[in-house]
Amino acid sequence: MKFLLLTLALQVTASGVLHLTNATNLKENNVTFAEEYLTIFYDLKMEQLPMTKAKVVGNLIEKKLREMQQFFGLEVTGQLDPSTLDVMHTPRCGVPDVHPFSVMPGRPVWNKRHLTYRINNYTPDMRRKDVDFAIQKAFQVWSNVTPLKFRKIDAGEADIMIGFAHGAHGDFNAFDGQNGILAHAFGPGSGIGGDAHFDEAEIWTASSKGTNLFLVAVHELGHSLGLDHSKDPKAIMFPNYRYVDPNTFHLSADDIRGIQSLYGGPEEDQHLPKPDSPTSAICDPNLSFDAVTTVGDKIFFFKDRFFWWKFAGNPKTSVSLISSLWPTLPSGIQAAYEITTRNQVFLFKDDKYWLISHLRPQPNYPKSIHSLGFPYSVKKIDAAVFNPFSLKTYFFVDNRYWRYDEKRQSMDLGFPQLITKYFSGIGPKIDAVFYSKFRYYFFQGSNQFEYGLLSRRVTKRLKSNSWFGC
User: Fold this and answer.
1) In this structure, are 68 and 162 located in the same domain?
2) Which positions does UniProt annotate for Ca(2+) 3 binding (predicted)?
């Protein structure tokens, strides 16, 4: 009777009751599915309606369809059209898009900054260590941009319990099988609060095949921390699943604004400067840098978890967390260089390196530095710089340097050589270096040496922070 009444409501074409696509062309299962979808995600309460009044039923369904279409950026028609059905059939999170409250009840947050999590059981689709890694990396995405810290425990009750389950699993939010609701999570709180459940009917993977566990976990843990769904299709908190390469994944500005509205940014570091303060860290005469490189028309200065950036010739400086620009990259970048003609920036830490193009991390990275031709005795790179005329990159390791041919993509023969042998007045060891206008700028502790490419000698000695008008 309920389905018959809904069908009648869909067939009404006059008086503005519900002007939908021709109901005779809709399969009964699509109509039923749409009703169930709106009930779960848009708070449609059919059981509270007078079932003898088709107009009332139709008006409410049209209203809920409009809400759903507006949320997903569809044409708002109130019609159950193919594009609306396509979105409804897209695999997604099981948390509703519209609540009978704003954000989450009472805007809940965790009242502590150190949280524990436990993986109750594991999917057979993946190796345990791959599940552990995906979940750990998902937590790291959120800890990179907040003061929150997460620790895995293997026994007892954790703040956030994580598990895989089929169908009904004891929380009154049954899963629906493969390719429907992928997972759901509960907002911060005691008991079931914060817990995240994943539908075991899905095929969980660490790749683009099946459903990527890392991506879904980042989304669900956003709910565990108090975030609601976002209307921004680029946000990880958008309700529908969309695969992106985990190696290039980063939080959207909307995601970061949302989580920082609840918890604030990462804890202040002693090196984070206050731009208007004369005693700020940037003007500390003992300041040194981990790496320096140009990035387009800017210069990036890396230190611990932060980087300062500025335009050459302009003392105005901005500071950011590395994780705010590149959430999947580590802190403590040790070397960096740019190939300007390719819009490529290479960042190094320990024995790994990442490729950044147009400010976006590229897929299939990080890679081992040994793939460039370094012997396995080299564990990290101290500094690197690209010469745009010779198309060679110089890598500095301890008191020696290697030369890499970017055109042939191989190391030149006859290296390494002593830094002091070729770069007169430089060495024996350097912290950072970058190229600008026929000059290299070498950094050693709090000192900086301007080195002329043509004269092959030091032309000026400066403090490392002289770029900032100190």
Assistant:
1) no
2) 176-177, 199, 202
167 is in an annotated binding site: no
Residue 392 has pLDDT above 90, yes or no: yes
Domain span at 337: 291-463
pLDDT digits (tens, 9 = 90+) for 400-415: 999 999 999 999 999 9
Residue 228 phi, psi (nearest 5): -95, 180
Asked if residue 263 has pLDDT above 60, the reply is yes
Tokens 């003992």, located at residue = 286
pLDDT digits (tens, 9 = 90+) for 153-180: 999 999 999 999 999 988 888 898 898 8
245 is in an annotated binding site: no
**So which residues are the catalytic ones?**
220
Domain count, the chain: 3
Amino acid at 286: N
323 and 255 share one domain: no
pTM for the complete prediction?
0.57
Q: Is 176 annotated as a binding residue?
A: yes
| DSSP class per residue in 185-236 | E--SSSTTTT-EEEETTS-EESSSSSEEHHHHHHHHHHHHTT----S-TTST
Residues 178 and 80 in one domain: no
